[in-house]
Structure formats: C-alpha cells, structure tokens
C-alpha cells in the first residue's frame, strides 16, 4: 500500500461542509467519489487535516489516503483534477511515509477571516467576506488580540453545540488584524481550533473595534468559560483554512 498526501483548495460556498453527509454535497464526498473512479469502483477513505463547515473555504487543506495503486505524483494530481468539480482543485500530490497523518501529524494551522467594511456591500464578495459596514479601531482590535494569544481554555469561544469531550485548551501562537483590500483580514495561527472558535473570536474583536467591548475584558471572558458571555457567531463566508503546518 502507498500513502498519498494531497494539498487542495476549494470554494466552500457550494458545499454542506467537508465531512461526508448522506444526501448532501460535501468536499470529502466529491474527493472520495473521484478516488473511487480511479480505483474502478473500490471505495477508498480519506483523512483530512480538519473538517471545515458549510460555506468555509480552503486554500491549503490537506488530506491523505492509502492506495494499492502505484501512480506518479503528478499523475495523481492530473487524474483527480480531471474528475473533480470546478470548485475543488488539487494543488499537490505526493507519496509520504505510513507514519504521516493529515490530522495527527499537523503541528499548527493558519486561518484567515475577511471582513468587508465598505458602506455598500459588494454582491460579488457576499460568499467570500463578511460585510460589516462600520468604522473600526484597528489599534484596539490588535490590543485585544494580545490577550487571546498564548495557551488558554477557549470554552468561552467554542460553540455550545460542540461535541468535544476532551480538553478545550488550545494555543494561539499569533493573532493579528490588518487592513486588506476594502476591509480587514484577521490572521489566526495556532496548534488547534475548537468548533466555531475563529468565528466567535472575530465576532468579539469586531465589538472591540466598534467600542462595544474593551480589550481588557478578555481575561475575564476567558476565565468565565461561558459561551453566553459573547454575542453571535458570525457567518462562515469570510473564513479560509489557509495552511496546515507539518514538520
């Protein structure tokens, strides 16, 4: 058996998420369908670095699968892209050791979240950025980011619907916000992320940017471990899995 690693990008707006679901169009489902054709009807399961939600995009998602076939890397890439729909593209395929795992070998992930701050929404960006037409104080937002960096229990910033049973302690190595295009972009770099964590944090940081919260509130919010202390989870459209980092 050979283990193949693929790096891919996709437009998440046409999918019910990455994870395979009955009667739903998913990223994982489309990939497994293409691999099955290459294997002449034999089902092959893939493992991903993470399961993005409906509407979330990826620029550097990673998957792996085991195959009895011996095919050159470029031929895997070409064959898969021929069979996949236009909203998924395989950027790289390569043979890796059996010790590699798309999820468990990952050291860190980088997510981006795009916010469009113009008064008038851009109809062509409605699936790729969150429209938030307000003046924002970037300096205060980045002050708040400093409080969120480091190792914390991020229960307050995890969806109440999350089914995780283990620790909710994660490490945010770097969190910044910068002007980008006709709005701003948040950059998250951490060892792992809870369900809806990025979208909940961005929601809080936008409140800070508008003066509805103070950066100094954040240590208390972290310590409370209470999701209800923060407002809504903002939409998925502006969220991108940018990169997965391995050794």
Structural account:
With 247 residues, this protein is of the alpha+beta class. It folds into two domains: 2-96, Alpha-Beta Plaits (2-Layer Sandwich), CATH 3.30.70.580; 108-245, Alpha-Beta Plaits. It is built from five helices and ten strands. A hairpin with an 8-residue loop joins strand 2 (47-48) and strand 3. The longest helix has 13 residues, at 197-209. It is globular and about 60 Å long. The model has no long low-confidence stretch (mean pLDDT 95).
In short:
With about 250 residues, the chain is α+β, with helices and mostly antiparallel strands. The protein contains 5 helices and 10 strands.
Helix content: 10-25%
Q: DSSP strand (E) fraction?
A: 25-35%
Question: Helical segment tally?
Answer: 5
- Give the total of beta strands: 10
Sequence of secondary-structure elements:
EHEEHEEEHEEEHHE
């Amino acid at each position: 058996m050979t283990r193949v690693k693929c790096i891919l990008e996709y437009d998440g707006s046409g999918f019910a998420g990455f994870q395979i679901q009955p009667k739903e169009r998913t990223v994982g489902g489309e990939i497994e369908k293409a691999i099955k054709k290459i294997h002449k009807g034999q089902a092959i399961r893939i493992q991903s670095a993470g399961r993005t939600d409906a509407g979330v995009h990826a620029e550097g998602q990673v998957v792996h699968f085991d195959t009895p076939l011996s095919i050159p890397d470029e031929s895997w890439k070409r064959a898969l892209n021929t069979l996949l729909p236009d909203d998924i593209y395989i950027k790289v395929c390569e043979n890796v050791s059996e010790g590699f795992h798309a999820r468990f070998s990952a050291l860190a992930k980088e997510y981006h979240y795009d916010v469009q701050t113009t008064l008038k929404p851009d109809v062509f960006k409605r699936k790729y950025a969150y429209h938030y037409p307000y003046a924002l104080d970037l300096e205060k937002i980045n002050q708040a980011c400093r409080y969120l960096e480091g190792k914390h229990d991020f229960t307050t910033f995890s969806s109440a619907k999350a089914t995780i049973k283990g620790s909710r302690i994660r490490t945010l190595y770097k969190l910044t916000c910068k002007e980008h295009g006709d709005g701003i972009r948040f950059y998250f770099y951490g060892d792992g992320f809870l369900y809806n964590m990025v979208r909940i944090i961005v929601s809080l940081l936008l409140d800070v940017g508008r003066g509805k919260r103070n950066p100094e509130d954040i240590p208390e919010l972290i310590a409370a471990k209470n999701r209800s202390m923060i407002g809504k989870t903002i939409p998925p459209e502006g969220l991108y899995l940018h990169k997965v980092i391995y050794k």
